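Re: that backbone. C-alpha cells:
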C-alpha cells in the first residue's frame, strides 16, 4: 500500500487501503452509496472493515447531485441523532464524494467524512483536493465549499465492476494530468492499451500530480487553475447537453474540451495533432455544440470575469500556463 500525504490528511492507495483508517474511534457511522456502489462496492467494503453503520442511499447520476438529495442525507443524519462525533463514509464516484462531502461539511457546521472513491474519475481526481458541492440551476458545482476529508482510501479493486464508459470518463482526467504536468507520463499512457493499464500505478501518478498542485494552492488562486485545462470548454459542453436533456459524461465533455483548448494553446501543430488524434481515438467525443451557445455557458462560469474567458492552456505537452484570457470576439474569430 502507498501513502500520499496531503495537507492535513493522507491518501492510501492499494488493496489494503480499506483497513488503513480507524473507524472505531467514532460514536456513529453512516455510509453514503448509490444503487450501483451499494450493489458492487458495499459488500467488498463491509467484508474488509466489518463495521456497523447506517446506510444512506441516493439514486446514481449527475442529475441527483443537488440540494434535494442533500436534504435527504441531512434528514437521515438528524433522525439518527448524528452528532459531531460521527463520521460519514462516501463510498462512490464523484457524485457521492462531492455531495456527501458537502453534506457532511455543512451538517452541524461540519462532521468528519472520508472518501472511498469507486470510479476512476473519483480515484484520480475528485476525491483529492477538498472541492465539494452540488449543482444548482443547471450550473455545475454552483453551491459548495472547500473542505478536506479525514482520509482518502483508494482500492483499485472497485474498478472491476465499473462500466467501460465510466472508466474512460475517468481516464480523461489522467490524460489531463499528463498533458499539464508530465511528458513522460503522457508517453506512458499513449503507448499502453487500456486493457493493459496498471491502474494502481496510474492512480498513484495522477494523485501525486493533483496533490502537489492543490497543496500549493488549495483555494484555486493560481497554480490550481492548471487543473482546469480542458474544463472551461468542457463544463460549458456538459451544461449545454445537460440542459438539452441529453447529459454526456464528464470525461467525454472534457476530452472535447482538451482538443479545443490545445487548439487555442501556443504549441506547434505536430503536438496539436498528436493530442487530437490520441484523444479522438481513445474517447467517444460528443458533437461540438455551436460556439455561441458554449460562450453563453462560459459567461456564468465562476472562473470567468466580465467579457473575458479565462483558460489554462499548454506550453507544450507536459507543461501548462494559467490565466490565458480571450474575449468573445477573439474566440469567435
Ligand atoms: N471535487 C472535484 O475536485 C471534482 C473533480 C472532477 C469531477 N468532479 C465531479 O465528479 C462527478 C463525476 O464523477 P464520476 O464520474 O465518478 O460520476 P458518478 O459518481 O456519477 O459515477 C459514475 C457512475 O458509475 C457508477 N459507479 C461508480 N463506481 C462504481 C463501481 N466501482 N462499480 C460500478 N459502478 C460504479 C455510479 O453509480 C455512476 O452510475 C461530477 O459531478 C464532477 O463534477 C469533482
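Recovered sequence:
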Amino acid at each position: 500500500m502507498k501513502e500520499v500525504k496531503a495537507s492535513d490528511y493522507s491518501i492510501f492507495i492499494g488493496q489494503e487501503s480499506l483497513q488503513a483508517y480507524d473507524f472505531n474511534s467514532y460514536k456513529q457511522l453512516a455510509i453514503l452509496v448509490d444503487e450501483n456502489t451499494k450493489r458492487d462496492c458495499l459488500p467488498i467494503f463491509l467484508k474488509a472493515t466489518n463495521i456497523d453503520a447506517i446506510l444512506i442511499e441516493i439514486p446514481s447520476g449527475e442529475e441527483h447531485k443537488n440540494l434535494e438529495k442533500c436534504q435527504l442525507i441531512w434528514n437521515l443524519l438528524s433522525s439518527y441523532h448524528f452528532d459531531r462525533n460521527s463520521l460519514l463514509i462516501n463510498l462512490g464516484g464523484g457524485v457521492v464524494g462531492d455531495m456527501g462531502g458537502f453534506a457532511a461539511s455543512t451538517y452541524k457546521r461540519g462532521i468528519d467524512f472520508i472518501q472511498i472513491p469507486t470510479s476512476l474519475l473519483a480515484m484520480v481526481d475528485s476525491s483529492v483536493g477538498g472541492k465539494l458541492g452540488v449543482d444548482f440551476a443547471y450550473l455545475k458545482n454552483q453551491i459548495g465549499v472547500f473542505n478536506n476529508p479525514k482520509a482518502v482510501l483508494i482500492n483499485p479493486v472497485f474498478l472491476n465492476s465499473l462500466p467501460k464508459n465510466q472508466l474512460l470518463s475517468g481516464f480523461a482526467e489522467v490524460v489531463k494530468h499528463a498533458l499539464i504536468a508530465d511528458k513522460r507520463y503522457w508517453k506512458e499512457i499513449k503507448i499502453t492499451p487500456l486493457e493493459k493499464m496498471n491502474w494502481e500505478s496510474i492512480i498513484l501518478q495522477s494523485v501525486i500530480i493533483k496533490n502537489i498542485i492543490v497543496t500549493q494552492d488549495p483555494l484555486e488562486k493560481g497554480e490550481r487553475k492548471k487543473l482546469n485545462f480542458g474544463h472551461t470548454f468542457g463544463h460549458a459542453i456538459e451544461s449545454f447537453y445537460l440542459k438539452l436533456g441529453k447529459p454526456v459524461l464528464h470525461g467525454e465533455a472534457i476530452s472535447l474540451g482538451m482538443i479545443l483548448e490545445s487548439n487555442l494553446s501556443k504549441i506547434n501543430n505536430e503536438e496539436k495533432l498528436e493530442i487530437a488524434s490520441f484523444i479522438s481515438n481513445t474517447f467517444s467525443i460528443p458533437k461540438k455544440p455551436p460556439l455561441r451557445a458554449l460562450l453563453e455557458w462560459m459567461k456564468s462560469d465562476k472562473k470567468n470575469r466580465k467579457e473575458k474567458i479565462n483558460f489554462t492552456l499548454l506550453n507544450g505537452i507536459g507543461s501548462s500556463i494559467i490565466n490565458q484570457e480571450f474575449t468573445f470576439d477573439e474566440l469567435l474569430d
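The two ends are 51 Å apart (CA to CA). The longest strand covers residues 308-316.
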